[in-house]
Amino acid sequence: LRARTTQYIFTRTYAMSASHTIPKLNDPSLFKEQCYVGGSWIDAKSKEKFEVHDPATGKLIGTCPEFNKEDTERAIQTAADAWPGFRKLTGRERARMLREWFQLMQDNADDIAALITWENGKPLSDSKGEVQYAASFFEWFSEEAPRSYGETIESSFSFNRVFTRKEPVGVCGLITPWNYPAAMITRKIGPALAAGCTVVAKSPGETPFTANALAELAHRAGIPKGVVNFVTAMKNTAEVGSTLTASPTVRKISFTGSTPVGKLLMKQSSDTLKKLSFELGGNAPFIVFDDADVDAAVTGAIASKFRSGGQTCVCANRIYVQKGIYDSFAQKFTEKVKAFKVGPGFSEGITHGPLIHERAIGKVEDHVRDAESKGAKITTGGQKLPDLGVNFYQPTVLTGMTTDMKIASEETFGPVAALFPFSTEAEVVKMANSVEVGLAGYFFSRDIHRIYRVAEALEFGMVGVNTGLISDVAAPFGGVKFSGFGREGSLHGIAEYQILKTVTMGGM
Ligand code: NAD
C-alpha cells in the first residue's frame, strides 16, 4: 500500500568514474580536496585525511584534510596576520569584494547546487534555492558594509565631545552544520567581512566540498589572502573546536548547530571571554486554530515540516491542531504527504532526498516507534526505504499524538509530522512554550486579536503567522532560551561582528 501511495524514484542522472560518483560540474576545478588557508590549498601537516560519503548511496565522494590543533593554530595566525590590512579597507572596498563573490556564486550556481546535492542529499531544485539564499547574504552585507555608522553624542559635559565608531571585533571562528552547506557559511562570512573581520571557518565534516567551492570563489573574487580560511576535520572536530575557543587571538565564535555542542563551546570560550553568537536547536510548534484557512494551513505546515526532509532547525516539529478541524486537517495533510516523491537528489521530479546519515535515521525510527508504542497512528510512511539507498525514510504522518511521546519534547530533525490535538488557546500556548528551546514557532488564524495575542505569547525568537516559511535575509534570524542568542541576517547581523567604541574628546 505504501509503495502505491508515495512514489519512489530510482533513476540516477550522474555518471560513475573509477573511484568516485561524480556529478557533471561545468567547472570541475571547484571540487577541492584540500583546505584553503592563507590563499593556498593545503593538506594537514600530518597528511591525514577523512572520507566523505554520498548520503544517498554511501559511496565515496572524496577526502579532506584531518586538521588538528597545530593546523588550526596556523589558520588562526594566518587570519590574524591578514586582519590589520583588511580592517583598514573602507566599507565600500569590502562591499565590492562581497559583491564580486556574490556574482561568482550566481555564475557558478549550478555547480554549487550539484555539490550540495551530492554531499547533503537534498533534491537539486532545493539546492538551487539554497544557492540563491546563500548568495543573498553576500549581496545584503555588501550593502550594509558602507552604511555601518557610529554616532555623535551630546556629552553631559560642555567641555567634552563624544562619538562612537563601529569597529571589527577581529579574528572570528565560524562553525556551521551540514543541513545548509552553503547558506550557514555565507550567513556568517557575509557580515564578518562586511564588518572588517577575518575568519577561520570550520566547515562540517559531512559537507566540506560546498564550503571548498565557496573558498575557491572567494579566491577568484580577490578577497585578500588570509582573510577567509577554511579548515576541515572529522575525528578531530572537538580538537579544532577547542583550539578555536581557547585561542586568545580568536575574538568571536559564531556557531550554528546543536544545543549540547553550543553549551560546550560556550564553556570553552569562557577563559578567553569571547563575543559569541549561537544558533542552536529548535523544536518548533505549528498551531492551527479552528478559525484558520485549513487549506492554507496544510500548505504552510507541509512547507515548514518537510523542507530539507525535516532537517532544518526551524522545521515544525509539533503540529497542534484544534479539535474542531483536526480530522479534516489530518486527512488533507496526509494526502499531500502521500504525493511526495522520494529518491536520490539528482533524479528528476523528486521532492525529498535521503537523510544525512544513519544516526539521523536512527533518531527518526526511535521517535516514530516511541509514538506508535504509546498509541499514535501512522497515516502514511513509518518505514525505512532500503531499496532506494542507504539513508532513506518514508515521509511520515502521525496522528493521535500525546504529550508523553518523545516528539513532544525532542527535536526529530527528520520527515515525521506529528499531529497533536488541542482544545483551547491557553492550553496550546502553554504546550508550545513547554520546551527548553525557542527558535521558531508558527500559527494559523484569521482572528486579528488572536494573532496579536498569540504572536506575543509565544516564547520564540521568530514567529510565523499564516506562513510556514520565515527565512529571509532581510529578517533577523535567531532564537531565545536553549536555542541560543545573537541574530543573523538583517540590519542586526553585522553588529555580531563589531565592537562599539566610544571616543571622548576633552578640553573643548
Ligand atoms: P552538531 O552540533 O553536532 O554539529 C554542528 C557543527 O558543529 C558541525 O560542523 C560539527 O562538526 C561541529 N561540532 C560538533 N562538535 C563540535 C565540537 N566539540 N567543537 C567544535 N565543533 C563541533 O549539530 P548537527 O547534528 O550537525 O546539526 C543539527 C543541529 O543543528 C540541530 O539541533 C539543529 O536544530 C541545529 N541547527 C540550528 C540552526 C539554527 O540556525 N539555529 C540551523 C541549522 C541547524
Describe this entry's structure for a reader.
- The strands form 8 sheets. A 7-stranded mixed sheet has the order 18-19-20-16-15-22-23, sandwiched between helices.
- The chain has 508 residues and is of the alpha/beta class.
- The protein is built from 14 helices and 26 strands.
- It is globular.
- Helix content is 36%, strand content 22%.
- β11, α7 and β12 form a beta-alpha-beta unit.
- Nicotinamide-adenine-dinucleotide (NAD) binds next to α8 and α9.
- Pfam families: Aldedh.
Record keyword descriptors for this entry.
508 residues, 7-stranded mixed sheet, 6-stranded mixed sheet, globular
Task: Give the secondary structure arrangement, pairings included.
Blueprint: H1 2-5, E1 7-8, E2 15-16, E3 21-22, E4 35-37, E5 40-42, E6 49-53, E7 60-65, H2 69-88, H3 91-107, H4 109-120, H5 124-144, E8 152-153, E9 161-168, E10 171-175, H6 183-195, E11 198-202, H7 208-220, E12 228-231, H8 237-246, E13 250-256, H9 259-269, E14 275-279, E15 284-288, H10 294-306, E16 316-322, H11 326-338, E17 341-342, H12 358-373, E18 377-380, E19 396-399, E20 416-422, H13 425-432, E21 437-438, E22 440-444, H14 448-457, E23 462-465, E24 480-481, E25 484-485, E26 498-505
Parallel strand pairs: 1-17, 10-11, 10-13, 11-12, 13-14, 15-16, 15-22, 16-20, 19-20, 22-23
Antiparallel strand pairs: 2-3, 4-5, 6-7, 8-9, 9-26, 14-25, 18-19, 21-24
The structure holds nicotinamide-adenine-dinucleotide (NAD).
